[in-house]
Amino acid sequence: MSATLSNTTAPNTADYGGDEISALVLDPGYCLTRGGFAGEDVPKSVIPSFYGLIPSVAGSKHLYGENAVHTPLPNIEIRNPISQSGIVEDWDTATQLWEYAITSRLTNTKPSNPLTNGLNDKTDELKQEMEGVETQERPLEENPLLMSETGWNTGKGREKPIEIAMENWGTPAFWLARSGVLSAFSAGKASALVIDVGAASTSITPVHDGIMLKKGTLRCPLAGNYISDQLRLIFSTNQPSVPLTPHYLINSKTPVDAGAPSQASYRTFPPGSEPHPSFRALQEERILTEFKESVVAVWSPGRLGGHNQQGGTNLDTARTQNTRPFEMPDGYNQLFGVERYRATESLFDVKMALSDASHPAPTPSQTIPQMIAQSLSQVDVDIRPHLLSNVVVVGGSSLIYGFNERLKQELEAMYPGPRVRIFSPGSVVERKFSSWIGGSILASLGTFHQMWISKKEYDEHGAGIVEKRCK
């Protein structure tokens, strides 16, 4: 008869690796994969979740890491094993990517083969001694692993990580935690309404007493990449249009006046060796990310398409605000005024969205205020005021200037009764890596060791134990 599962009884020290060995925390996202040791302030390993693929007759070669995906190698194609919804689609590549994130910065490199490293004379005797010995050292044989997941992950998507960790990496213990819950923990809260504005999606996660309320968990694609698409539409419809030429295509440039055409010489590639269009798209996204960080802002007070107290429109008021300069890689530069606010306005007001055939306009229910309203309508009425007084805002795209002020304004307009309080880390690192930091805090707690799923329990119950234990 199998032993009953319990998350209140601590497993033996040998079952989970013991407190004296640091657990690893792995937080995979669509844009970045973060890894590090529990108890530390920031992840030591932060790599792109994108990878380079170079086709060849002998077979495709995969390249991982920051340098690999930003170097214009011949025929390089950029892919991502994770879909825009945050669900893993290519498990084999995701496993290699995560293993790279762990072994490149966190664990020791694999020792060389003693038969071929030239350090041993009697290789015949050594061959006999090494018969049956595993040729490959597994990267996590000494470290428990805590991994994060999206709040809408599938059943297979929950079971596969423990299989990889136990079977491929040899971890002695494992835990799977919801990223929204971890973000709440990073803000020091067991109950919160977590608003995570990332690269590919925005999610609303109500958390109560450390448990994610699944009915109220929602996501939509209005996030960083959507703002980038809005900027592309603004640039293309501008008169004259704003060029978006990545750094790797520029040989040299000459300074020009604001609004004047660029004067640059461009790099060419031999026929058949040009990087794949996906490479250029990623490099363009880097320019747009820099533009978002330095120029783009969220309008407040009121809505950009509305009227102000003087009877004029906020759009006219925005045109009188200070402009921000920005220079493109080819030297083209311009002062940007109302465009700064136009790119983000449709996160809150769908009427201001720009659209074309390949970028359809979002629906009203996809705006952040409406998603919050839908989420709160799915949770118990008694805890709604508590959630509204503990709104935690995280994610790299929430760093856009003015975002929190506008969000508070929208929430107070929708919920005039309860007190609305927004908690958002001022530090860029804490905002971008909130779920990893929450995992670091959780896995380093002395009381958490009784929660780990040990290798022994995995062997006994299989991967399905995740569904029973990791709520």
Ordered list of secondary-structure elements with their pairings:
Layout: H1 13-16, E1 24-28, E2 32-37, E3 45-48, E4 51-54, E5 61-63, H2 66-69, E6 77-79, H3 91-105, H4 123-129, E7 145-149, H5 155-168, E8 173-178, H6 179-186, E9 192-197, E10 202-208, E11 211-212, E12 218-220, H7 224-237, E13 250-254, E14 263-266, H8 277-294, H9 314-319, E15 324-327, E16 333-336, H10 339-345, H11 368-377, H12 384-388, E17 391-394, H13 403-414, E18 422-423, H14 428-432, H15 434-443, E19 453-454, H16 455-461, H17 465-469
Helix pairs in contact: 6-15, 7-8, 7-10
Keywords:
flat, alpha+beta, disordered N terminus, single chain, six-stranded mixed beta sheet, 19 strands, 471 residues
How much of the sequence is in beta strands?
Answer: 15-25%
In terms of structural class, how would the helical and strand content be classed? alpha+beta
Strands in their spatial order, largest beta sheet? 3-2-1-7-8-19
Percent helix, as a range, is 25-40%
Assembly form of the protein: single chain
Radius of gyration: 25 Å
Q: Quote the distance from N terminus to C terminus.
A: 25 Å
SS elements, strand count: 19
- Which word captures the global form? flat
- Main pleated-sheet profile: 6 strands, mixed
Q: Flag low-confidence runs.
A: 1-7, 13-19
